Amino acid sequence: MSTRGTGLWRWVPIAPATALLLLFLAGPIGYCVWIAFTNTQLTGASGSDFVGLDNFRRAFADGDFRNAVRLTLVFTFVSAVLGQNTLGLALAGLMRAASRPVRTVTGTLVITAWVLPEIVAAFLLYTFFRREGTLNAVLDWLHLPSQNWLFTLPILAVSFANVWRGTAFSMLIYSAALAEIPRDITEAAEVDGASGPRRVWHITLPMIRRSIGTNLMLNTLSTLSVFGLIWAMTRGGPGNRSQTLPVFMYDQAFLKSLIGYGTAVALLLLLVGSLFSIVYLRLMKVEV
Amino acid sequence: MRPTAPLILITAVTALAAGTLTACGGGSGGDPDTVKVAYNRSTDNKIRFKDAHLEAAKKQFEKDHPGKKIKLIPIQAPDNDYATKAQQMMRSPKTAPDLLYEDTFRINSDIKAGYLKPLDTYLPTWDQWGQFVDTAKAAAKAEDGKTYGIPDGTDTRGLWFNKAIFAKAGLPADWQPKNWAEILDAARTVRKKVPGAIPLNVYTGKGPGEAAVMQGFEMLLYGTGEDPLYDPSAKKWVAAGKGFQDSLDFVHTVYSEKLGPDVSDALDPNVGTRVATEWFPEGRLAISLDGSWMGQNWVNKGPKEWPDWGKELAQTPMPTQNGQAPGKVSMSGGWAWSIPQKSKNPDLAFDFIKTLQTKENATRWCVVAAQIAVRKDVAAEPKYLKSMPGIDFFTGLVQYTHYRPALPVYPQVSTAIGEAMEKVTTGDASAADAAKAYNDQLKTIVDGAVVTK
What we know:
The structure holds 2 protein chains of 2 kinds.
Chain A: H1 4-9, H2 15-36, H3 54-61, H4 63-97, H5 100-115, H6 118-129, H7 134-141, H8 149-152, H9 154-179, H10 183-191, H11 196-207, H12 209-224, H13 228-233, H14 245-255, H15 259-284
Helix pairs in contact in A: 2-15, 3-15, 4-9, 4-12, 5-9, 9-12, 10-11, 12-15, 14-15
Chain B: H1 4-21, E1 34-41, H2 49-64, E2 69-76, H3 79-90, E3 99-103, H4 104-112, H5 134-139, E4 150-154, E5 157-162, H6 163-169, H7 180-193, E6 198-201, H8 210-221, E7 230-231, E8 236-238, H9 242-256, H10 263-266, H11 271-279, E9 285-291, H12 309-312, E10 313-316, E11 318-319, E12 328-332, E13 334-338, H13 346-356, H14 359-368, H15 376-379, H16 382-385, H17 391-396, E14 401-403, H18 410-426, H19 431-445, E15 450-451
Parallel strand pairs in B: 1-2, 1-3, 6-9, 8-15, 12-14
Antiparallel strand pairs in B: 3-13, 4-13, 5-9, 5-10, 7-8, 11-12
C-alpha cells in the first residue's frame, strides 16, 4: 500500500466529506476566531479593525464577565456534577434493584424529560417556578412559605431545571455501566461480609470509573453551553444573577451589538470547557 | 490517551461554541416584482391593528400596480429582539427586506453601519413630503444631512391616573403634581388608603428595554436640567451627574418603598402589555408614567375592550424635578419606514411608502395606532382630532417635549441606562454605584469623550 498512487487514491472517497467539513465547519470556526480579535459591531460604527487582544483584556477587567464565569461554574457544578451525575447514578442503582413495572415507569418519566425540546422544558419549568406557579401552589397547600423562586434564587432554579431535564442521560450511561459488573464479584464481597456502602465504594465505583469520567465530561460540556433553558426562564436576570457565560455572550453580541467582544467571550468559554475536559482526562485516565 | 483525543475534544467544543454564535437567516433572494416589508408584530396576540393597516395598504397597492406584489414579513418579538433580527436580515442581500419599519432612535446607528439607503433622490418628486413638520423630517436625518426614513407618527408621554382609586384615596380628580415629591406623596397616599392597588408604575430595567429608558428614566432625567444626556454644543455625552443620580434615586424609591408593581413583574419584558390589558382596565393601578398611545389598547378591536376608559382615566403632565421652568416635561419618539441598502427593489419599495402615506392612509394610521400626527394636513383632520379622548392633551405636550440624542451610539447608551435602572430596582446597587457603573460603560461606548456638567 506504499506506492505513491494508491496513497493519494485513498483520499478520493473522503474528499467530498472533507471539503464539506472545511467549508461548513472549519470555515465558520476560523471566521469566529478572527472576529474575536476585531471590534466588529452589529450596528453603529461599521468596519471591523484588528484590535489584537483588546477584547480579552476587556473581558478580564469586566465585572459582569467575572460574575458570568462564577455563575457558570456554580451552574455547572450544581446541575451537572452534583445533580445530574449523582442523581443519574442513584437512579440507575435503584432501578437495578427495582421490579420491572417500577423500572419501566421511572425510566419512561425520566427519559421523557430528556427528549422534550429544550424550549418546551424551559417553559414547563418556568410555569413550575413562577410566583403563581405549581411549586408555590403545592407549598401553599402544605402551609409552607412560598416564594418567588425565579426572582430570589434564579441560579438555583435554572440549575434544578437543568437537573430535571438532563438526568436521563447519566442514568442511561450508568445503567449500562452497572450491567457490566459481573455478578460473582458482588456476591463474593457479600459473602466476605462487606456492607452495602462499602461494596459501592470499593467495588462498584472503581469498576465503573471510566463511565463516570466519560459521563462527567459529556455532562459538563453540554451544561456549559446551556442557553435556551436559562434565557426562557430568567433571561439571565434579575439584574445579572443568572447570567451564565452563554447568556452573557448573547447579551454582548446581540443586545449590545458587540459581535467582536461576544465572540471573544465565546472563545473563553471554549477555554473553560477544554480546562474541564483536561482535568477529567487526567483524573480518570480515560481512553477517548 | 491517544494523541488525537485532545484534538477531537477541542474540535467538538469549538463546534459547540461556534454553533451558538452563528445566526440563521431565512427567506429567499429577491423577485423584481415583490416588495418584502418587514415590521414588528405585537407580542400580544390580540393586538393586530398594524397588521390590518398594512394588509389594507397591500391590497390597495396591488390593485394600483398590477403584477406587483407586497410580501409582509411580520416579526413577532420584543423591541430589542426585533431590532437584532432586522439588523441580521439587513446584513445579506439574500435576506434583506425592501422596506423596514424602524424605531427612529435606532436609525442613526443603522445608518452608520451602512444598512440603510438615503431617500433624497425620491423626496423632491414626492408631493407629500412638504406636509411633514420639520421635527419629523429631522427624525430620520443623519449626520451627513441625508434623510433615511419616512416617519409615520410620533408620541408624547405623561402621567395617566385612575379617578376611582384617586377618589378612594382622597386625592383630587384634577390632580396636577408640581414636582417629583408630589408624585411620590400621591403614591404613598394610595398605598396607605387603597390596599391591593399598585400606586405608581414607572417602567424599569433591561426587560422592557427602551420603554423603560424613555418612559421611565428620561422622563425623569429631562426634568432635572438642560441637555442632561448629551451636550450638543460640546458634541459630547454627559457623564452621570446629580440629575442622573436623582433620577435613579426616584426609581429606587418607587421600588424600595413598594410603591410600584412587584419587582419581578416590573422587570418582565411584557409588563407594558400587563399595564394596558390587566392593571388599568381591572382598576388595580393608580398612576402610570406612560405614553400617548395607551388608548389604542382599549378602543374597538383593540386587545382589551374598555368602552369607559375615557371616563375612568385622566391624564396630567409630568412635572420637572422641583417644578423649575418650563414646569412640564415630555419625551417624543416615533417610528419610520426605511429602505435597506441591500434591498433589491428600492424604487418599488418607495412606491409602497407613497401608498402608506396618502393623506387618507396616514390619517387612518394615526387614528388606529393612536399616534400623534407628524403631518400638518393630518393634524388638522377632524377625524384625527376626535379619534380618541386625550389626543388633544397629548398633542398639547409637543411644546414641552424632548427628543433623544439622535446619534449612532444611543442604543448602546440606552442599554447601559437600562442596566443601571435594573440594579437600583432590584436593590443590588445604590443610585451612586449604579451611576458610577454607567459612567464606566459610557466611557467605553464613546471612547472616553464625555463632559461633566
